[in-house]
Write a sequence for this structure.
């Protein structure tokens, strides 16, 4: 079972757990329905893309654990507390953590609980969860990170406790530096075994070494669309939970995301809400379904 976890910036969204079903402009999590812009907002974009991918490949529908959090941290704390207490009962095979605010004790409790399970879930982190894992020195306890080059530079700096304090100017990171930064992050113990570095050329990394690069289809107009990194995380989560080999799943997720862009043919004003409905078609095309 795939479990997708994170906060959504909706003030009145209660702690919600349940099976996920994505439809354009509608995302159902248990008995709670997100509609309109909220379907593709942050964590919801990741969840929607995972659901769309599962539907396309005939995999079991994922589950999600979400709560509203507009920056005060209550949603993050309640999510992690619930997850820690119920993880053994939920027994997921894959857990993907997305947008959460910085926290130490509750985050570490969850990771430690996961590692004590008889059958430990495959742990994936993106966004705030990825940054938090590095900050509390628990990156090696995860299996897969999905950083962009800026986040990778934070992982590669052993002295940075926060992305704002990376030694070199974060926005100057060139994609040609991805192999070096990936190796540095892994050698310092600040990266898991697997990574997808999401960039104009995507890199799949195993134990600090780039094992694949993906640049086709090349759709440069995808780069400015906020959320296209979140969709890769959802796609790879779905593929891994279906039983696909991890490296193959990473490569396929990158190709699915790029093929989605090829189908959409985005313009400067294209939004992620217009992107996600094409993920299912792209997944079938890439995987020959």
């Amino acid at each position: 079972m795939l479990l997708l976890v994170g906060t959504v910036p909706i003030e009145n969204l209660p702690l919600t757990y349940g099976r996920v079903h994505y439809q354009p402009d509608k995302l159902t999590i248990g008995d709670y329905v997100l509609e309109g812009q909220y379907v593709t907002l942050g964590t919801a974009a990741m969840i929607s893309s995972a659901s769309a991918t599962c539907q396309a490949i005939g995999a079991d529908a994922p589950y999600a654990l979400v709560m509203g959090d507009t920056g005060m941290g209550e949603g993050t704390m309640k999510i992690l507390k619930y997850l820690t207490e119920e993880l053994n009962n939920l027994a997921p095979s894959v857990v993907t953590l997305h947008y959460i605010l910085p926290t130490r004790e509750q985050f570490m409790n969850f990771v430690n609980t996961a590692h004590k399970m008889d059958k430990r879930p495959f742990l994936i982190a993106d966004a705030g969860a990825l940054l938090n894992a590095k900050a509390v020195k628990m990156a090696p306890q995860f299996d897969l990170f999905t950083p962009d080059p800026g986040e990778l530079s934070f992982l590669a700096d052993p002295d940075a406790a926060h992305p704002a304090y990376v030694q070199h100017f974060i926005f100057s990171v060139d994609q040609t530096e991805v192999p070096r930064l990936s190796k540095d992050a892994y050698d310092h113990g600040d990266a898991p075994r697997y990574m997808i570095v999401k960039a104009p050329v995507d890199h799949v990394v195993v134990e600090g070494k780039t094992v694949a690069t993906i640049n086709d289809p090349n759709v440069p107009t995808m780069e400015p669309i906020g959320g296209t990194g979140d969709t890769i995380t959802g796609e790879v989560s779905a593929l891994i939970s279906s039983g696909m080999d991890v490296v193959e799943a990473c490569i396929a997720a990158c190709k699915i995301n790029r093929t989605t862009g090829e189908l959409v043919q985005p313009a400067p004003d294209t939004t992620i809400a217009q992107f996600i409905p094409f993920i299912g078609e792209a997944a079938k095309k890439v995987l020959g379904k």
Summary: DSSP finds ten helices and eleven strands in the chain. The longest strand covers residues 16-23.
